[in-house]
Amino acid sequence: MFSLLFYLRAELKTVQRQTGPYDHRDNHLERERVASPLPTIFARLLSASTLQRQMEALLHSAFSPPFSTFVTAGETGRRVLKTRSFIIARSGGNDSNTSAEAMEAKKRDFESKSSDIWKLFNDAQQNILYLNTQRLKAEEELKKIRKENDALLARVEELEADGFRPPRNNVHFINMTDKSLLLGELMLRIDSMVLSGIMDLGEASELRKFIIENKMVVTDAFYNIRSKNDHELLSNLRDVFNNNGRNQLHILHICTEMTPVASFGSLASYVTELSLALQRKGNFVEVILPKYSVLNLDEVHALCKVDTGVHSYFDGQWHENKIWTGIVCGIPVTFIEPQSHVFFSRGAIYGYPDDFERFVYFSRASLDYIVKSRKQPDILHIHNWQTAIVGPLFWDIFVNQGLENTRVLFTCHGFQSQCSDLPGKLAIVGLDSSQLHRLDRLQDNTKPHLVNILKGGIVYSNTVMVLSSVHTKEHIIQNMGYGLESTLNIHKEKLLLAPYGIDAKEWDPSTGKILPARYSSEDYKGKATCKTELRRHIGFPDDASKAIIAYVCTKLSDLDFQNLRPAIRLAMNRGAQFVIMGSSETSGTEAAIKVLQNEFRKQLRFINKYDEPFSHLLLAGSDIILCSFYNSEPQLPLKALKYGAAPVLLNVVSDGRRLADRREFSRMNLLQNSFSSFMDMSLGQALDHMVNDPIGWNHKIREGMSKDLSWDAESCGIHLAAYLSTKNL
Length: 729
Known about the structure:
Elements: H1 2-19, H2 28-34, H3 37-62, E1 71-73, E2 79-81, H4 84-90, H5 96-161, H6 176-195, H7 201-213, H8 215-225, H9 230-244, E3 250-254, H10 266-280, E4 284-290, E5 301-305, E6 310-314, E7 317-328, E8 331-338, H11 355-372, E9 379-383, H12 390-398, E10 407-412, E11 420-421, H13 433-436, E12 451-452, H14 453-459, E13 463-467, H15 473-479, H16 485-490, E14 495-498, H17 526-538, E15 548-556, H18 558-573, E16 577-584, H19 587-599, E17 604-607, H20 612-621, E18 624-627, H21 636-642, E19 646-649, H22 663-666, H23 672-679, H24 683-692, H25 694-705, H26 714-727
Parallel strand pairs: 3-4, 3-9, 4-8, 9-10, 10-13, 13-14, 15-16, 15-18, 16-17, 18-19
Antiparallel strand pairs: 1-2, 5-7, 6-7, 7-8, 11-12
Helix pairs in contact: 1-3, 1-5, 2-5, 3-5, 6-7, 6-8, 7-8, 7-26, 8-9, 9-26, 11-12, 17-20, 24-25
């Protein structure tokens, strides 16, 4: 029996040692998860300990000696030993029968107590088995908790790597209640952005759907960016959406320019830079171009002619086209070369009397090629009036030829050039002029006897993207439609605005090799060196106290100069130095500038040509860059901001007050924090700010320089959102 007791004690000690006392230093998650099994285990241990004491008492009484010994104290302090035999002797006999009965009773009592011990032992065994089972369950729970902790730590590290860092002194663990509150708050923020015009309905719908399907990812991200303003929040949400919420898109550009193989205007760099940014986001992008005789084929890698050509419909007949393929800057490009016409075997890209025929031929041939090659892009991206006819062609002829899931996005870089022609000429590419020569379709708004090709692109595209870094949608619709205001107003729900981007490698003062000194928002010292070098280069007196103001354009028109004149005089009166760079379109403009130069010899310089390498130094050395609503260099405000020059809108009167409504810029959804700091100032206010608050001015300048103004940033995010919403229409 003693060996049984020792075994029981050993088993109890083993269970206690393996289970261990509860450590209050454990992770709070472990406390919550282990809390349910542990109290039961401790209760069993307590019961087992009680059981052990009961067994010891029973064993003690069972194995007690036949003569119980006890001591009493008398008055004389004598110790009296009383035994059972002494009592029997005093009773007067030595009764053997009584002794036998006593022994028999003793035996029965012993057997009864032994039975109780075995029962207690069986109970103890059951308790030990139960404790072992619960111990194993608790260990499994602990393993699960540790695994979840490891996963949570990995998630935290992932979020920190993505830039979502919680406040150092306010670590917050988001429980399910918090997540529900955050989800509701985010949905309300999206509603607010829709109502204020920051986000269109299509993008809002896509974001809401994504948020519901990805609550964990979105709420974790939102907690760390919830304090940002609506514009910054939207930019971050687009990043999360683009990185987690979409599959790869197939985007196909049908266009007439692409740098560096066929460059004329802003379209060329837009197509290439946006395509590269989209590819870096994991999308598949390809381009279709005419095979101009003036192509820079040195920039085409692996150029080859496809053995099988493509026939396209034009002027009642099917005409053969040779197909060439190659890679331009890592982008797959298809070149279409007509065999029956010399539409593109000329010395320039644009500027011919038959430009209408040239580009509607190319547009129809591009769609014929897409159908024959069985391409099924998600988005056909068309550009300006030259490929706007793709819209009517697609929906009237091609949509049911394997392109049922394809949608059309039309980008317009400006509404000045529209291409109006006789309705009957639409038939040369297979369109029915009687169906299209209507006011709600292609009929020109101001010349009703003509059809307007640019209008056709607006009407027949699913989404219309207007590129501008300085305008609002309202301003474009009301003031920049060139006769298309009513059409734009009708289709304003599908009209989106996107900013330009800049080539971050080429336009960065911290890496530019052309500049005399490099600088950045963190290390601004090189800016002063560039200003000194600019003054030396163009012959200005070396006076660091004078602000340098510049106006940059490729061509300087009479209208540009008329807008510049009051700004020049204002700058002269404030003692600033003024530089104009751009080719004058007329001799009258050049003569008028020379008159001003003679008047302000020490303060005004005119460089009568656009020199891109020199423009780097001009941007780096200037304090203010004047930007026009109608400037032919749409990326100029971005470049100015990156080079530490304030982009200020050229729209002033002689007293320096802006003519445009200031509220227009407070509603802008493009680079809001950067541009609104300067674009809502007049030139006079900007000069006052420089003098009266130089610390605040430098802070704004450096803040603007620190922004990511590349195509990969806001512009790409807006385009991706537009593609996705267009695809799902």
